[in-house]
Design a protein that fits this description.
Length: 480
């Protein structure tokens, strides 16, 4: 029986291993983590992450061929294949601060593997890492090998949160990079055999290590670039009276461009896009390619511009001040169908409103109060630390309150900001919301989920990203 151990029971490790266990009954899968609480949650009825379909998959195989454990050393030493899916935060100090990845956790995982191993192992990079990390890991392992053979593979994960289970069940492609030696090829084949239980062979791509690592960074950079491109166009639409949804539809109809990932928004978030582009920028700079670095950096700058522009629209519309005014924030997760808030644009928007002394009331169907307070108190780049190293609950900010539903959040508010595209925000009783708000009542739709005309008919002043401006806003330029 093949034994797999995955270090890191997070958004990537947890769902990926659940699907491997489900699809490969003959493989034993153990997910280990240094966080005792996280493992306890994986073993309970309340899983530590919200992901549609995950509960079912875990329930079907937990206790059979899927285990969650804190006994890291035991399970690593027994495994044939060790996946590593630990945090790779952006460095906050020293060489490469603000761009390069901090590989502390990766390096300690590699040293631990070398320390406890008694048999040959395939070590799989699942975390997104800078190009040539595998080489560094290989050096740590071989310099401490005690005669054991290690093969390093890069097997980047392409799942998106909220659709992780579908993405894992039916991936566009699985990418496996390995050394081009007989042992390397054998290791690639061993991992390929695992995926071949459910993924058609022509979707399992094999390549060299560096190409696999770089493909992951490039794929995320291309996706993020599409969003920044349409967001750039959204600003132009607002200035000229065009409608960004119409433009995106017309552009996406070209089969060379395609219709997906062209929704203008308040900005992209999530644990990957910004971090991966920063990695790409850093690698380009290190190779003396400043034109390439600047090109990709612009994708992040456009995203920051979009978030600032949104805050400025809110403040400018309300007579240039939100001081002491209640603003309802609907949605805090970085996208719908997840409780994840890493790099969510909601943090920047809320911080921007708080800087202007607003009082905010936040409602999100999946994000806890503790998480929101923590996020608003956390400095940039500190979110990507292992959970147990993050600060305990900070003292709640008194200008921030958490509401149990959208109606409570909006009660007595001057404005409503929609920051996550949760389906329930499309179905709200906006007349009821309007009646309970201060007048004039504003809606700022950062996700284009409402119909501006319907809301205007109720009496709202509506701002929607990239849509023709309300006459109220026309003479209020809000360039970031
Ligand atoms: C993680 C990384 O953050 C990301 O950079 C990488 O691309 C994929 O793996 P994700 O699963 O979304 O992504 O992160 P997270 O939910 O934070 O999970 C990482 C887990 O690793 C945490 O549960 C943490 O406790 C654990 N961990 C971290 C260890 O078990 N050992 C360590 O030394 C460090
Ligand atoms: C992304 C990649 O899609 C995935 O392949 C990779 O493995 C990890 O990073 P994820 O961050 O989970 O996945 O979600 P994704 O659906 O890509 O959304 C990222 C951000 O972009 C979200 O904030 C989302 O709201 C935003 N977005 C997405 C837009 O603003 N407009 C769009 O058209 C699409």
């Amino acid at each position: 029986m093949v034994k797999i151990c995955c270090i890191g029971a997070g958004y990537v490790g947890g769902p990926t291993m659940a699907v491997i266990a489900l699809k490969c009954p003959s493989v034993e899968v153990v997910v280990v983590d240094i966080s005792v609480n996280r493992i306890a949650a994986w073993n309970s009825d309340q899983l530590p992450i919200y992901e549609p379909g995950l509960d079912d998959a875990v329930k079907q195989c937990r206790g059979k061929n899927l285990l969650f454990s804190t006994d890291i050393e035991k399970h690593v030493s027994e495994a044939d294949i060790v996946f590593v899916s630990v945090n790779t935060p952006t460095k906050t100090r020293g060489l490469g601060a603000g761009k390069a990845s901090d590989l502390t956790y990766w390096e300690s995982a590699a040293r631990m593997i070398a320390e406890v191993s008694k048999s040959d192992k395939i070590v799989v990079e699942k975390s997104t890492v800078p190009v040539r990390t595998a080489e560094a890991i290989e050096k740590i392992l071989t310099h401490n090998s005690k005669g054991i053979n290690y093969q390093i593979l890069s097997n980047p994960e392409f799942l998106a949160e909220g659709t992780a289970m579908q993405d894992l069940f039916n991936p566009d492609r699985v990418l496996i990079g390995g050394r081009e030696t007989p042992e390397g090829r054998k290791a690639v084949q061993a991992l390929k055999d695992v995926y071949a239980h459910w993924v058609p062979e022509d979707r399992i791509l094999t390549t060299d290590l560096w190409s696999a690592e770089l493909s992951k960074l490039a794929a995320n950079a291309f996706l993020a670039q599409r969003i920044s491109s349409i967001n750039a166009i959204s600003a132009l639409c607002e200035a000229t009276g065009a409608n960004v949804s119409e433009v995106a539809y017309a552009v996406g109809k070209d089969s060379r461009v395609g219709p997906k990932f062209l929704n203008a928004s308040v900005g992209f978030g999530g644990s990957s896009f910004q971090k991966d582009i920063l990695n790409l920028v850093y690698i380009s700079e290190c190779n003396g390619l400043s034109a390439v670095a600047n090109y990709w950096y612009q994708v992040i700058q456009m995203n920051d511009y979009q978030k600032n522009r949104f805050v400025n629209r809110v403040v400018a519309s309300m007579f240039n001040t939100v001081s002491g005014k209640k603003i309802a924030v609907l949605g805090f997760a970085f996208k719908k169908d997840t409780g994840d808030t890493r790099e969510t644009p909601a943090v920047d928007v809320c911080k921007g409103l708080l800087r202007d002394k607003a009082t905010i009331s936040i409602y999100d169907p999946q994000v806890t109060e503790d998480q929101i307070q923590r996020d608003l108190a956390t400095n940039k780049f500190y979110w990507d630390r292992p959970v147990h190293l993050q600060p305990m609950s900070p003292t709640a900010m008194k200008q921030v309150s958490i509401a149990w539903d959208a109606y409570e959040a909006a009660k007595g508010a001057h404005g409503v900001c929609i920051l996550t595209e949760w389906d329930e925000f499309k179905e709200l009783d906006y007349r009821r919301i309007y009646n309970d708000m201060q007048k004039p009542a504003f809606v700022f739709d950062g996700r284009n989920v409402v119909d501006p005309e319907k809301l205007r008919a109720i009496g709202f002043i509506v701002y929607a990203i990239g849509k023709p401006l309300d006459s109220w806003l026309k003479n209020m330029p809000a360039v970031a």
